[in-house]
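Retro notes (design track)

What went well: tokenization of the new backbones is finally stable.
What didn't: we kept losing track of which sequence belonged to which structure.
Fix going forward: every design gets posted as structure first, then sequence, in one message. First example under the new rule, 176 residues:
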């Protein structure tokens, strides 16, 4: 059950997200916690939640014409310069908070694989770290708000992404 404070801060699309997941027969575990903006903040709180913690990086190419949501293990430090070369893309960088709001309609710290629900024009490409794909069956996701964590099965997330028209691209990530 959500607290009155959480209800006041609810993202306007979360009820529709819940309905869509329900209509697809997808169930999830829900955890409520203080707002978390980074994986390090979650570590500091010592939160105990089921599933695999995920780092969600919203990236853009050097020209700002292509956007990517990259999902990887929370502890990974991704080498974006090497990844750019590996994928033959102009220099990858972090997209601004303005771009995050424009494309995925979430604030920094609230992005997850569920945020693709808000990408009305399907402008963002979904990239998933191959190691994460192979290692994790339960995935922690923010449902547009960083004071909640929903834990979903990987197979259910794939069904959700397919429903939205996304096909995850698995990538061998260069890390530091």
């Amino acid at each position: 059950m959500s607290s009155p404070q959480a209800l006041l801060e609810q993202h306007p699309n979360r009820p529709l997200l819940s309905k869509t997941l329900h209509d697809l027969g997808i169930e999830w575990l829900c955890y409520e916690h203080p707002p978390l903006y980074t994986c390090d903040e979650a570590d500091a709180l010592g939160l105990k939640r089921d599933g695999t913690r995920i780092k969600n990086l919203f990236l853009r190419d050097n020209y700002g014409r292509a956007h990517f949501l990259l999902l990887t293990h929370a502890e990974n430090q991704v080498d974006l310069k090497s990844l750019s070369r590996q994928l033959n893309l102009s220099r990858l960088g972090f997209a601004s908070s303005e771009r995050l709001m424009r494309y995925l309609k979430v604030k920094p710290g609230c992005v997850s694989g569920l945020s693709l629900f808000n990408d009305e024009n399907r402008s963002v490409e979904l990239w998933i770290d191959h190691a994460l794909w192979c290692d994790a069956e339960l995935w922690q996701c923010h449902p547009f708000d960083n004071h909640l964590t929903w834990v979903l099965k990987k197979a259910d997330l794939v069904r959700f992404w397919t429903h939205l028209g996304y096909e995850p691209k698995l990538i061998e990530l260069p890390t530091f």
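Added context from the reviewer: The first strand starts at residue 29 and ends at 32.
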